[in-house]
Amino acid sequence: MTIPPTLETPRPSLDMGDFTRHDEAPGLVDATAGDHRIALTWADRRQAEFPLIWLRDHCPCPACRHPLTHERLHVPLEEPDEIAALHLEAGNLGLAWADGHISRFDAGWLYRRIPGQSFEDSVPARRPWAEDFRPAHIAHADFVAGAQGECAWLTALLRDGLVLLDNGPLADEEVRRLAEHIGPLRATNFGARFDVRSKPNPNNAAYTAIGLALHTDLPNWREPPDIQLLYCLENDALGGESIFTDGFAAAEVLRQTAPEAFRLLSETPIDFRFQDEEQDILWRAPILSLDDVGNVLEVRLNNWIRDSLRLPLEEMDGWYRAYRTFWRLVQAPERRFELALSPGQMVAFDNRRVLHGRHAFDPESGRRHLQGTYLDLDMCESRLRVLARKI
Amino acid sequence: MTIPPTLETPRPSLDMGDFTRHDEAPGLVDATAGDHRIALTWADRRQAEFPLIWLRDHCPCPACRHPLTHERLHVPLEEPDEIAALHLEAGNLGLAWADGHISRFDAGWLYRRIPGQSFEDSVPARRPWAEDFRPAHIAHADFVAGAQGECAWLTALLRDGLVLLDNGPLADEEVRRLAEHIGPLRATNFGARFDVRSKPNPNNAAYTAIGLALHTDLPNWREPPDIQLLYCLENDALGGESIFTDGFAAAEVLRQTAPEAFRLLSETPIDFRFQDEEQDILWRAPILSLDDVGNVLEVRLNNWIRDSLRLPLEEMDGWYRAYRTFWRLVQAPERRFELALSPGQMVAFDNRRVLHGRHAFDPESGRRHLQGTYLDLDMCESRLRVLARKI
C-alpha cells in the first residue's frame, strides 16, 4: 500500500489545535515499524519509540479531529491495525494503516511528545519566599500596554504568589477592568466585586476597622477563590497597613521543626462555616492540604470562621497545640511583607498559598477603601500561555 | 468567685451566629469541673466531657465573638485558665475563668457539639443510581413558589446528581433567573451563560450537531464546574435526545470488575487541554479522583479535549486498555437515562459525577436551542441549608 502525496505541505500540528510553534524542531530522518511500535530518528540523532495505539489515537486527519473545533473525534476503542506502509515526507511522518486510514504527523509535534519527556510550560514553578522576599512591582501603564508587562505580572504572581501593580488610575471598578484582561470574575457570597471598607452592618471582619490577623479567604468553600486582587482607591486613615506571608514556606518550617504538628494539621479535617440570613456555607478540610507525594497544595487558616471543633475528645488538646504552633510560625517576622497600599496601587496574591492581613485602622482619621475581586488560577495560567505565544 | 446573673435569658447560640434551632434540646442538670475538662449532664441523662481549651475557644461573649459579624475574635494561643466557678442558670452553663473572664453556653448548642458526635446536615448524602433510576421531576411553578419546591429540587440534585424542572416559561435567560435563586453563576471560558446550538464557527463539539458521547465538561480546569443547568427553549430537530449516566456508579462497577483498570485510572494523571486564539487551559489529573479512603470524588472523562497522552512508553498500552474498559462500562444501558428535553424543561446535574451526552441531531430538520450555566456546589448546599431553616 502506498500513501498518496499531499498537495501541500502538511500542517498537522495546527490541525491538532496546537498553538505551540514547532518550526525550530528538527525533521525526521528515519522511521521503522516494529512490534506494536514505530521507532523514529530525528535529524539531531534523537531517537524515540511511539506505540501504534498512541499514534492512532493522535491522528490529526479531519475524520479523527474535528476540522473546526480541533477536538478529538476518534475514540481509541479498538486495538490499532497494523501499519501497511510508512514513509517520510519533507521530514514529517506519513502512515497507512491496514484498514486504509492515512495519518500524517508533524515531526516537531512528535518531537515535543517523546514518551517520558516532561512538558514545557510557560507557567513558572512556585518559588517559596526567601527571608528577604520582596514582591515584584509592575507599572499599571506597562500592564495595559501589551503582552510584556502583563506577562511579567502574571509570572511573578504565579511564581511568588504575590505581585504589586503601581500607579494606576483612581477609577472606580478599575480592579474589574484589570481582572477581565485575565478572565471572568470569580463570584462568591460576597459578590463578584466587593468593597473593603468599614461598613455600618458588617457580615465579615474585613468590613470593620479591626486588625486582621494573617488568614486565607473563604476556607469554608470546598474551593476557596484562587487569586485575590485588592485595588486601593483611598488610604489616608491611620493604620491599615497590609501584611502578607507565604503560607507554604511557613508550612515547610512547621514540617521541619514540629513534624507532629504538621502531621496533625495536614491529616485532621476541621469545619469552617459562615452563616447569616442568606447563607450557610460549610466545608470540612484540614488546615494544610497535601498532594499525593506530601507537597503542600493549600493552606486554610481563618480563625474567624473556624467552626466549632468537632473531633473525638482525646484528639482535641493535641489539635489545639498544633494549631497554636502553626499560628505562631505564620506570624514570624522573617517571612512577613508589609506595606501601606497607595491609592492607585493593586496587590494580587494567591489566596490558597499566601496569607493576608492588615493592621487596625482608625476610621475617624481618614478613609480607607479597597475594591477587590477574585480570579481563577486556571484563567491566569491560560492567559500567560496565550501571551507567551506572542513574546 | 461568683458569676453575676444575666439580666435576661442568655441567647448564646445566636451570639455564635448559629441559625440552627436548639429549643427542643434538653437543659443541663449537672456540671462538674475536672482535670482540664468539664463534665456535663443533660436532662435526658446524656453525659459528655468538654476540654477547657475547647470551651474557652468557643466563648460566645462579645469580646470573643464579634457582636455584628458573629465571627470568632478570640485566638486560642494560651493554655486556658482554670475554672474559678461554674453554675447552671435556667439549664444553661455559666463559667468564670481564673482571670475573671465570664463565658455562658447554651445547653442545646453544647448538646449538638458533644465531642465525637457526627454533624447533622440538611444536605443529603449522595446515593448511587440503581439500575432503574429515574430522576425526580419538580414543577417550575413549585420551584418558584417557595421553600418547599426549591428544597425538593436541591435535595434530588445533591442526592442523585440529576433533577428535572418541568413546564417552565419559554423565556430567554430563564436559566439565569433560576440559577440566581441559588447563587452567582460560575463563569468559564465559555462565558457565564452559554447557548447550546449548532453554530457556524464552533470552538466546542457541543456547538455542532454531532452526537456527543457521555462526558464531563471542562476536565481541563483544575476545578471543573460543579452543577450544570441546561434549559430547553426549542427542540424540534430530529434527534438530539439527552443521555445521562452516574459516573460514580460506573466507577464502582469498574472497581469491582476490573480492579487493575480502576487502579490505573485513579492513579495515572493525564492531560486535558483546550487551546484556541484566546485560551490555553490545561490541567493534569487522573480520570478518577479518590478521597483519602478511596471513595470516588470526581470523574473527568472528555475524549475531545483529552490532550496528548504523556506517559512513560511502558505505561501506555495498559492505560489505553483501562480507558477502553471504563469507556465501555460508562455506555452500559442499565445505568443510562435518556430523554428528549421539552421546551420549558430544565435539566440540572452534577458535572463532576454525572456524565452527559446527546444523540446527533439534524439541524436542517428543526431547531434545538438550550441555554446553560454552571453553579457552585457550595452555593447549592448553602441554599438548601438556609431553606431548610424555614421548613
TrEMBL record, chains A, B:
Name the Gene Ontology molecular function terms of this record.
Answer: 2-oxoglutarate-dependent dioxygenase activity; metal ion binding
Specify where the region named Disordered lies, as residue ranges. Answer: 1-26
Q: State its cofactor.
A: Fe(2+); L-ascorbate
Q: What biological-process terms (Gene Ontology) are attached?
A: carnitine biosynthetic process
Q: In its keyword annotation, does this UniProt entry include Iron?
A: yes
Q: Where does the source fall among the domains of life?
A: Bacteria
Where does the TauD/TfdA-like domain start and stop, copy by copy? Answer: 152-374
The UniProt record lists the Gamma-butyrobetaine hydroxylase-like N-terminal domain at 34-111
Keyword entries, A-Z: Dioxygenase, Iron, Metal-binding, Oxidoreductase
Family, per entry:
Belongs to the gamma-BBH/TMLD family.
Protein name (record): DUF971 domain-containing protein
Q: Which organism is it from?
A: Pistricoccus aurantiacus
